[in-house]
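Pilot study result, target chain (402 residues):
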Amino acid sequence: MHILHVEKMLFSPSGVTSTVCALAAWQRARGHRVSMFGCTRDPEQADRPAFRDFTATRNPLALWPMIHNARAAALLDSFLGRIERVDVAHVHNLYHHLTPSVLPVLARHRAAIVMTVHDYRLACPAKHFLRPDGVCMRCWPHALVHAASPRCLGPGGVALAIETLVQRFFRRYVRWVEKFLCPSAFMAEVMHAVGVPRGRLAVVPNLIERPELASGERRRAKRFVYAGRLTAEKGPDLMLELAERLPAAEVVIAGDGRLREQLEARARRRGLTHVTFLGALERAALARLYASATAVVVPSRCMENSPQTMLEAMACGRVVIVPDHPTLRQWVTDGRTGRVFAPGNSESLAAVAEQVLADRRRRQDMERRAMELVNRRHDAEAIGTRTDELYEEARRRCALRW
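Predicted structure:
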């Protein structure tokens, strides 16, 4: 089978990219031919659409390219004309970059289309069900006007709300996508509420790349690790508040993003010499960091869908500390497979962190159960096989139409 993965940020070491690459590697190992198509930041690469974050501007003229990227569609059409016929197109994050303009192109080339829903963008113009004062689902399922509220995105939310409304009204995703793959049952319910028929939805856990822990790496006695983007929705500022409340602990922040300079400056102002910023890490360095951790903290203020850092840490046998969001409860049961804290509350986070440090035996029990759960639920063979089955189902549905 020839499979084409379409993802806007294949050039970036994001959680979605890691998931796509892990699935593609499994598929190649099983004899499938796999191709990739996405945006580029290289001005010399003229055969790929340039990556532009249209949401970074409030210019009304940016609205149409957010809805329909004609250049991306034309470049994909040209790309498909140069390669062997694609049997299945597995699309990922399209939204206001590649946009659903690429979907009819794929259909015209007789590719069955499936889509993994990695985030809430089809249900929430702000993408994260989050506004500055906390989790918010006011716009879901149909009250999109809330995205333009001063308490949410303000004027910048107008274009995003219109874009979401247009895509939904013209059913530009539902019309072309045969199967929507949801990493969690919660995501499947979110998608059904915004108009995706249940028969098109399938819960398929993300396939993860398990870091190979370095056997010689010594675990630190009081080291709390954060790994991920340094952006507001991910809550890395809570790691600094944790460091202030636990001055005897070591806090390590791995990752990059628009908040990095601000966080580093704040750490210097407050004299947090026990906080270390490592920047973005390659897989091997990330594995060494996990191996050295007492616990891995996922302090996200938003409702994560299937956070890669959490899953990788659990697979490595490390305690995870996560916010008590309904989306994460299928993995983390407090005291059994990890610990939870009150979302956005640094006092609660610090109290839980102290409890993790205080009880080594309980920590070891949680680590064992977490590893067993992730190994069972995210078994590569089971996920890959189930994905293949859904591909075949999508192809049969397309054959009836063609």
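One observation from the pilot: Residues 2-207+379-401 form a domain with the Rossmann fold fold (CATH 3.40.50.2000). A full batch analysis is planned for the follow-on phase.
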